[in-house]
From TrEMBL:
Lineage: Bacteria, Bacteria division TA06
Residue ranges annotated for the Glycosyltransferase subfamily 4-like N-terminal domain, each copy included: 5-197
Organism: candidate division TA06 bacterium DG_24
Record domain Glycosyl transferase family: where: 204-358
Protein name: Glycosyltransferase subfamily 4-like N-terminal domain-containing protein
PANTHER family: SULFOQUINOVOSYL TRANSFERASE SQD2 (PTHR45947), TRANSFERASE (PTHR45947:SF13)
Gene Ontology molecular function: any one: glycosyltransferase activity
InterPro entries according to UniProt: Glyco_trans_1, Glyco_trans_4-like_N, Glycosyltransferase_grp1
Length: 388
C-alpha cells in the first residue's frame, strides 16, 4: 500500500500507537504507485504478481524466520502482495488478523460503486460484471485481473482459512462481512481513532466558511456539494484536496455560478488542521458506502459539527441532530437547507461542536483503539492455540 490517504494515514498512526505502548512493530508494504508497467511483457509480469507473488511470499518467509512475530496484522494485500502472503502465513501457522478497510472481499473495484451509483452485482460471486462494466480504472484488462483475483480468493477460501479475526471499523462493515459468509464470532468492531491533543481546537471562533476535506472523486459526492453551495451563495466554501475530477468540478462550479466555492488543492497536514479548525462546520457528502469516516472524527476532535450523507458508516458515526446533520446522498436541496440552517445558528453549532468533542473523547481516543487491538490479538492467539 502507499503511505498516503485515509487508510494509509490510519496505518501509520496505528504503528505509532503500538510502538508508543512498547510493542515491536515491523511494517512490510509495497508501494503500487511506483509500479508503472508498460509493454506486453511488463504488464504480463505485473498481472501474474498481482495474482500470486512468489517474491512477496519469499519476503514474508524471511521476515518471519528472522523476527518470529507473535501476531501478523494485515491491512491490504492487493495488487502487489497478493494471496501468496496468506498462503505462506498458513504454511507457517501464524496467528493472523486483518483490518478490512473496503469491500475487496466481494468487489473487484473495492468500492461497491460504479458509474455514479452503488453497485452490488458482484457480491454473490458474479465477478464477470466487473469486466463488462470496466469497474477498475475504466479498463477491461485491470477489471479482468481483479475479477480473477476475486474468483481465486473464493475458490481457495484463503481468507477464511488463515485470518483468525477480522477487524472492521464500523458495525456497517461488520454486517456486510456477515452477509458474505464471514462468521460473526470472528469479527471485531474496532473504530479508528484520532489524537485528541493534536486535533484540539484552540478557539470556538470560526472564520465563517464551510470546509470539505477529501479526494475530488466521483464516490465523494463533491458535485452534490457544489450544486448545493450554489443555492446558498452567502456561505463561503473551501474544498481541500485533489483528484481526477478537479477539472470537471471546477467547470461545474463555474456553470452553476458557485463563485463562493474555493478549490485549495492538496495542502500540508498542519494546514488541513488549521482549515478544519477555522470552519463553521465540515461536510462529508459521500455517495458510496464509507466504511468509517476518519476525517469526521478528526473534525469532532476539533470541536466542529459535521453534515454527512446518510450512507454506509457515515450514518453510524454522525449523530443526526447531536454532532451534526444527516441528509440523503445526492439530495442537493436537503443538503443546502441543512447547511443554511446550521450556518445561521451559531448557538447550535457550538452545542453540536461540544457534543462532537465529547464523542471523540469517549469513543475515538487512542486508548480505546489500543484496548480493542489487544483484545483482537488475544482472540487470534487463543483461536490459533485451539486449532493446534
Amino acid at each position: 500500500m502507499r503511505l498516503e490517504g485515509g487508510q494509509e494515514r490510519y496505518c501509520r498512526d496505528q504503528i505509532r500507537l503500538l510502538r508508543s505502548r512498547g510493542h515491536d512493530v515491523r511494517p512490510f508494504y509495497v508501494d503500487s504507485k511506483e509500479i508503472r508497467p508498460t509493454g506486453l511483457m511488463s504488464r504480463s509480469k505485473y498481472f501474474l504478481q498481482a495474482i500470486y507473488s512468489s517474491g512477496s511470499k519469499q519476503t514474508i518467509a524471511r521476515l518471519v524466520d528472522t523476527w518470529q512475530p507473535d501476531v501478523v496484522h494485515l491491512h491490504n494485500l492487493f495488487p502487489l502482495l497478493s494471496l501468496s502472503v496468506l498462503d505462506e502465513l498458513r504454511r507457517l501457522d501464524l496467528p493472523t488478523v486483518m483490518t478490512v478497510h473496503d469491500f475487496h472481499l466481494r468487489c473487484p473495484g473495492r468500492d461497491l460503486f460504479v458509474r455514479g451509483k452503488i453497485c452490488e452485482r458482484c457480491c454473490g460471486g458474479h465477478y464477470y460484471h466487473a469486466v463488462s462494466l470496466r469497474c477498475v480504472n475504466d479498463r477491461i484488462d485491470e477489471s479482468l485481473l481483479h475479477a480473477i483475483i476475486c474468483y481465486i480468493s473464493d475458490l481457495s477460501d484463503l481468507f477464511l482459512k488463515q485470518i483468525d479475526v477480522f477487524i472492521t471499523p464500523s458495525r456497517f462493515l461488520l454486517r456486510k462481512l456477515v452477509s458474505w459468509g464471514v462468521p460473526p464470532e470472528r469479527i471485531c468492531v474496532v473504530p479508528h481513532f484520532t489524537d485528541l491533543e493534536v486535533h484540539r481546537s484552540v478557539s470556538d471562533v470560526s472564520d465563517g466558511y464551510v470546509a470539505y476535506v477529501g479526494r475530488l472523486a466521483e464516490t465523494k459526492g463533491v458535485g452534490t456539494l457544489i450544486r448545493a453551495a450554489s443555492l446558498v451563495p452567502d456561505i463561503r466554501f473551501i474544498l481541500v484536496g485533489d483528484g481526477p475530477l478537479k477539472g470537471s468540478l471546477t467547470e461545474l462550479a463555474s456553470r452553476h455560478g458557485a463563485r463562493n466555492v474555493e478549490f485549495c488543492g492538496q495542502v500540508p497536514g498542519d494546514r488541513v488542521k488549521e482549515l478544519l479548525g477555522g470552519a463553521m462546520f465540515v461536510v462529508a457528502p459521500s455517495e458510496f458506502y464509507e466504511t468509517f469516516g476518519l476525517s469526521v472524527i478528526e473534525t469532532y476532535a476539533l470541536g466542529k459539527p459535521v453534515i454527512a450523507s446518510r450512507v454506509g458508516a457515515l450514518a453510524e458515526v454522525v449523530e443526526d441532530g447531536s454532532t451534526g446533520y444527516l441528509f440523503e446522498p445526492g439530495n442537493v436541496e436537503e443538503l443546502a437547507e441543512k447547511m443554511a440552517r446550521l450556518a445561521a445558528d451559531p448557538g447550535q453549532r457550538k452545542a453540536m461542536g461540544r457534543n462532537a468533542r465529547d464523542v471523540a473523547e469517549t469513543r475515538y481516543a487512542a486508548q480505546f483503539h489500543y484496548e480493542g487491538l489487544q483484545n483482537v490479538y488475544r482472540m487470534a492467539l487463543r483461536r490459533r492455540g485451539n486449532r493446534g
